[in-house]
Amino acid sequence: MNFDLFSNQFRAEIDAYLIKHLPVATSPYCEILSEAMRYSVRAKGKRVRPLLCIASYALFEKNLYKISPYWAAIEWIHTYSLIHDDLPALDNDDYRRGELTNHKKFGDSTAILAGDTLNAFAFEHLCEELPLHFSPDKCLKAISLLAKACGLNGMGGGQFMDISAERNGTDADVLFIHSAKTGAILQSCVLGPAILTNCNDAVYKLLSNFGQSIGLLFQIVDDILDVTESSEILGKTANKDILQGKLTVVSVYGLDRARELAKNTYKNAQNDLSKIGNMGYDTEFLKTILDYFLERTY
Ligand code: IPE
Ligand code: IPE
Ligand code: MG
Ligand code: MG
Ligand code: MG
To answer: Among 46, 103, 181, 298, which residue has the most ligand 2 atoms within 8 Å of its CB, making it the best to mutate?
Structure first.
């Protein structure tokens, strides 16, 4: 299956859900904050995290709507992470998803709070909605996994290392940083849905490795695209990493070896996936996403 076909099948539902379930401000004084949250959520993200959740859940279940709260929470968290990533104190970017960044539109303080509020709301939504479909112990495990992926040894710590490495990172750090800042949440997209179903230990282990590889692959390709594509195509400022002295797979290995690294990481993920396929699971959606992660151009 081709990625556009797969994405088009779910895209409208994902976009609608993400907007429809955002909280409503009880005080008119918070309307601008609420608008800032909505501004970044409604912007045109690729929604790869929701799609990855759906693909993972589809290994185990036919009825896919129950996993919606999980992917929605992840996309709200991802959106918060982008709002904060773009702030002057972090990457200082003016464009995101083809539009002005949140802080350029609403100011730094509102952008910081829009990020904080999206993050908190994601967990509120999980606590309220997930137990309507899954047992409490499974919900707790899946929510805890996601919280961990966002935290000190996941995205938060990874973002901190990314910023610190602009000044004093060593080349050996780059894959570790990438797995933390970007990989951990993508791995949760694969593992959270598995936790919520009846996934056995052998498949879970393979999915864990698969999730790790696909998460790393996503950031390796993000680094490559930063130097190979234009700002118009990316919807964000191209060549930003070099300008800022970021530690990336391209700055460490050069473009050719970075591409090789992407290929090898892809093959690792492919291996795990074929083993899952050999155990009788339909991996077509996951394979479609994996191929897209290697071949995407923005
Ligand atoms: C960008 O993520 C930031 C990274 C983790 C590399 P995406 O490339 O998924 O951004 P959107 O959601 O499509 O805007
Ligand atoms: C961002 O990585 C990772 C996050 C956790 C948001 P980048 O800084 O490379 O993402 P872009 O290139 O700005 O989208
Ligand atoms: Mg960054
Ligand atoms: Mg950035
Ligand atoms: Mg980048």
So the answer is: 181
